[in-house]
Structures are given as structure tokens and as C-alpha cells.
Amino acid sequence: MSSGPKVEGSAKANLHKHRSTHFKIVIVGAGSAGISVASRLRNKGESDIAIIDPATFHYYQPLWTLVGAGEASAVSTKRLQADLIPQGVAWYRESVEGIDPGKSELTTDSGVIIGYDCLVVCPGIELAWDRVPGLEEAMSTPYASSNYTVDLAPKTWELVQKFNGGTALFTAPGTPVKCPGAPQKAAYLSSDEWQRRSILSKTDVIFATGAGGIFGVPEFAKVLREVVERYGIDARFNHELIKVDPDSRDATFQVTTDGVKTESTIRYDLLVATPPQRAPSFIRESPLAHPDNPLGWVPVDKHTLRDIRYANIFALGDVSDAPTSKTGAAIRKQAPVVVENVLATLSNRKLPANYDGYAACPFTTAKGKMLLAEFDYTLKPCPSFPVINTQKERTDMWYVKKYGLPAFYWNLMLKGRGK
Length: 419
Description:
Layout: E1 14-15, E2 20-28, H1 32-43, E3 49-52, E4 57-59, H2 64-67, E5 78-80, E6 90-92, E7 96-100, E8 105-108, E9 113-121, E10 126-127, H3 135-138, E11 144-145, H4 153-162, E12 166-172, H5 182-196, E13 203-209, H6 218-231, E14 234-236, E15 239-245, E16 250-257, E17 260-267, E18 270-272, E19 277-278, H7 281-284, E20 313-315, H8 328-346, E21 359-366, E22 369-375, H9 395-411
């Protein structure tokens, strides 16, 4: 057996690079979902596990919204991946080149062939800048940014600080994105900052989204509409960003009204954009992607999270087509379900665990205020704190977002603990 390259960071990471091998359980992706599943499997005594992910660093991405508002540093969201891979799990620090579910094996970009008894697919999501011509080019100008990369989020705060009035445009696609509340949060936190600096009255804040409404859960949508009204935000729905001209600072939208599509252009002085998103290319181009879904999501039973075609494959997190929000909170509830069902599959038992669609969107509506929207497949509120009223903006929830959730993530969730 040949050993792989040295790993930066903790020596506990078990990095492997055999040319052909087999594991009982293979996990594709070492993000929130992959690490959580691996840790829970190890906690249950499973030892024949491999995880495949090329990343050197791991990020707590939900905090990037606060980075873009000057309330957190980018470095605070970053850890070495080697320090997080559970001890005893073989780590292939490579990319997946192809997946053959018929043979129950996959191939890495260096040609390593890895067989599996069960495959857990959770590689996360890919930013599809190319789906909007000019959008990525706009990010290199002094008028545009995004909170969807660790490099751009600090720039958002720089531009918000320098902004002295004009048209501030915040965009979101109508197709699924990770942390779908993040585009709104950027608009709210920026408006709050401009209100504090007494320039909000000189600013036209536009939130243009391809979605048909502010939020899908009526109880929380009511509160968010009040926030929009408070800041005087011009919320435009069914507005899909289709083109950006970085030189003229024009953003062009496809607007759908009663089934009729037209185009509308907005000139901006500041653009904070959310790029369209899709499954990674190796998933989109594999048999795992549904042929009728151009974004490449893996079709699963929404309760068991098992692939609807392959009995020994499970998918969770952003890459699955489970009809819920793509959030870390959803992953927190999905991971234990996948672990129980993987173990049942390996022992030829009936799948015992079911995911109810729980997801949460912590809407930071101002510095010091947060609306915690928790819901399930029924789109009914399902609060984790039933003794308090979470259907309003709260200061205590702001501290949960800023301090509590990151601590829970690093110290419990990624270690396979907590509910």
C-alpha cells in the first residue's frame, strides 16, 4: 500500500491513497453532512469508512452573512479539514471523477477505484456563476459583491460601509440555493446599517428575487413583510436575474407576470448578488442525477433519504432533491436518519428512520434581532424553543445565531452529537 501526501494540520486524519480498494461505507463530501454522518457512524462503532473530499479547509458558511455585515470575521468561519475528519476514517483528499452505481464503485481524479457496500452522497452545492452572463465579472468591480464565498463576504461589508446613497440591489434566484434566507438577510442588515448612518432615506433598496413571495411559511412571511415595510425595501418577486453589465452597472431580469415573461433592467450603485446554484459536475454527469433535472439534484425518498433507484445509496444536504430548504439545520436532522438507515441497509433490515422535512432559516433582520423560522414538510412552524415566542424578532435569538449556533456546529454537530 502506498501512502498519500502529508496532511496539513492534525495527525489524526487518516489519509489514504490506494489504487483500488473497498469500504463498507463511502461518504462523498466532507462538509457539514459528510463529517456529521462519519462522526455518528464512528460513534456507533463502525470502522470501515472512507470519506472523499479534496478540500484543505472547512468553513462554517452560515456565518458569512454576518461577515458581510461586519459582525464576524472570515477567519472565524475557517478550520483545517484534517482536524475535523473523525479518527479512524480513511480520508481520500481527492475529487470524485465518476460514479458507477451498477458496480457499486466510484473513481477519483487520480484514478483510484473505490468500491462500497453503501454510498452516502453529500458533496454540497456548486455556485453557477456562468448561468448569469456578466455576474462573475461584476464581482471584480468596486460596485458588486456576494456573501456566498469566503473571499467576497468581507467585501460586502466594505462596500456597505462606503455606500452613501443611490440604488442598492439585492438579488436571489428562484431556483434552490443554500441558506435561501441569506439574500434577504443581506438586504436587512445593510438597511439597518444605513439607517444607523442616516442614509437609508437617500437609498433605494431593491430586493429582486425569482421566487414568488417573501417566504413560504405564512406565519414567518407576515413578520418578514413587516421588516420589508420598516426599511422601505422595494421587494420584487418573480424577477429572475439573467444578465449583468459590469461596465454600465445594469442588471437585467426576466419578469414573469400571469405566465407572461418580459424583461426589466435596473441600474445599480451597489449589487449584492446570490448566484444560481447546482449540484457539482461529477454528480450532474453521473447516473445519480435525475435526467429531467438540469441542476443535477439526486432524487431521494424524502423521508428515508435513500436514492429512489439504488437501494445502497443515500443522499443528504444540499445535493438531494428533498423538498425542503438547503440549510445546515436540515442537515442536522437528516444526518441521524441517514446513519440509522445505512446501518439497517447493511444488515438487510427495514429502514427504521424518517426525516420530517425539518429546516430552519435564522433571519437576521437587524443587528441585534433575529427571526428564527423553523418548519417541516407541512410548512407549519415547529419551534425548538416551545416556551418562547419565535414568531417575532428577538434579541436572544441574535445571540443564538452569532455565538450559540457556531459553538454547537464545531463542538457537537460535527462530532456526531446533539439532536
